[in-house]
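dude i think i finally got it to work??
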Amino acid sequence: MPKPKAYLNLEYPNAHYINFKKACQYEFKYNSLSNIKDQGECNFHIDYPKLKATVYLNYRPVQNNIETLLRDAQKLTYEHVVKADNITEQPYINSEHKKFGMFYEVGGNAASQSQFYVTDSTKHFLMGSIYFYAKPNFDSVLPAAHYIKNDLKVLMESLKWK
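look at this
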């Protein structure tokens, strides 16, 4: 007898955001359901144990090298083009708070489904990317990727340079 069709019914709790402030050149809001691990030099891992994912945050001071930092961020994203079905770029501009950047959504079985960078172009550069603890399978990680993508957008919006 054939098995009945089954559909995933994944429900995630509503996000509650709290401030993250350390002795670094920036601060932001993050989901209280995640855990932040200090990696030194103002680089952090935001772990989502229940979603089996980590967001890697890498901070670099801008020292007359903005072109190199931008090129490296774009290169990291486009390394996934081999497995990606598509890569969507969403520019981010907040002139009032001197934040400019790009949010990338990577479709398909790429290792990272979302990446971003934010800079003020003179002093600060922050980039981040999501990685799951499993072999990439777009359909199975999509709900979790969407959930974390919303957290990344909150992080970008709430980011403050010091």
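The beta strands are 17-21, 26-31, 35-38, 44-48, 53-61, 84-94, 99-108, 114-119, 124-132, 160-161.
im so relieved honestly
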